[in-house]
């Protein structure tokens, strides 16, 4: 039943948000939970799943189509930004937020809730190949069109190469050619169990809605171009080529329609572009996903 995973996700996010509202935690504390997930839980999950997964061309095609779908959404956001005569900073921010989705912290729990543990491998590969790696390459290039200071592609690439989930991905792909004893994966699976609850709780602690009023028009453009347009484009292209949308294809469809990425938002704020849009897009994107994900599930599953 679709209600169960959505209700579970809502409770975890709401718990973090209420913990902040009742002064149990402060908003800055969300970084502690996020760092735990990024440095321990997610790398453990990636290493275990990637080591045991079989990679085929279908999965690569799905990821490629998902990424092309988000590019299409970003181009629509650029066009609408011109039509609405947004400032350069807002225009660049809207394109950045429309291109990169929260395929890790939101995407993985959502697809796991809808389809079970069997799709975690697909979700991980999608996040790494269609979000994390492209962000390191395209992110600085996009921001350079609006940033006051030069954005370093080399510096951002080095950061990604040292990023624990990416390191875990490389190690898993390298060691797939060797037979590892199963007891190695026992503690890793204990870390894995904490990914969903801790990540969603951290999102709740970090949520802020204070900037929505000042950027509502650009916010509408970002949410539509990130969370609706890519899904429609993905479905249309897949059907055009006669693909039967099985579980793996549906993971790609949902992942390309995830809300704007928190890391992309942080990069926008660091580049001193439209910080209000960056913050409100991440917050409202999480909320809006409780509307779009059930709709897509009923329409396409």
From TrEMBL:
The keyword NAD does not apply. It is a multi-pass membrane protein. It is found in: Cell membrane. Keywords: Cell membrane, Membrane, Transmembrane, Transmembrane helix, Transport. The chain crosses the membrane at residues 29-47, 59-84, 90-111, 123-143, 163-179, 191-212, 218-237, 275-300. The keyword Thylakoid does not apply. Belongs to the auxin efflux carrier (TC 2.A.69) family. This is AEC family transporter.
């Amino acid at each position: 039943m679709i209600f169960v995973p959505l209700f579970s996700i809502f409770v975890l996010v709401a718990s973090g948000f209420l913990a902040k509202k009742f002064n149990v935690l402060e908003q800055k504390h969300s970084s502690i939970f996020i760092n735990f997930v990024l440095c321990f839980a997610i790398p453990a999950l990636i290493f275990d799943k990637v080591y045991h997964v079989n990679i085929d061309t279908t999965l690569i095609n799905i990821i490629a189509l998902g990424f092309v779908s988000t590019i299409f959404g970003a181009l629509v956001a650029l066009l609408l930004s011109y039509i609405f005569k947004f400032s350069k900073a807002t225009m660049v921010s809207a394109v950045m937020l429309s291109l990169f989705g929260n395929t890790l912290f939101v995407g993985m729990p959502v697809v796991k809730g809808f389809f079970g543990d069997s799709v975690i491998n697909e979700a991980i590969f999608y996040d790494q190949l269609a979000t994390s790696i492209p962000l390191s390459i395209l992110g600085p290039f996009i921001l350079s069109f609006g940033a006051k200071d030069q954005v370093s592609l080399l510096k951002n690439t080095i950061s990604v190469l040292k990023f624990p989930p990416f390191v875990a991905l490389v190690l898993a792909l390298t060691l797939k050619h060797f037979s590892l004893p199963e007891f190695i994966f026992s503690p890793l699976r204990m870390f894995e169990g904490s990914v969903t609850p801790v990540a969603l709780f951290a999102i709740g602690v970090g949520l802020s809605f204070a900037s929505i009023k000042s950027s509502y028009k650009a916010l509408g453009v970002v949410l539509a171009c990130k969370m609706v347009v890519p899904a429609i484009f993905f479905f249309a292209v897949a059907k055009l080529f006669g693909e039967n949308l099985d579980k793996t294809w549906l993971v790609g469809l949902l992942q390309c329609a995830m809300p704007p990425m928190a890391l992309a938002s942080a990069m926008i704020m660091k580049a001193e572009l439209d910080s209000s849009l960056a913050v409100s897009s991440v917050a409202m994107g999480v909320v809006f996903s409780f509307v779009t994900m059930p709709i897509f599930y009923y329409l396409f599953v």
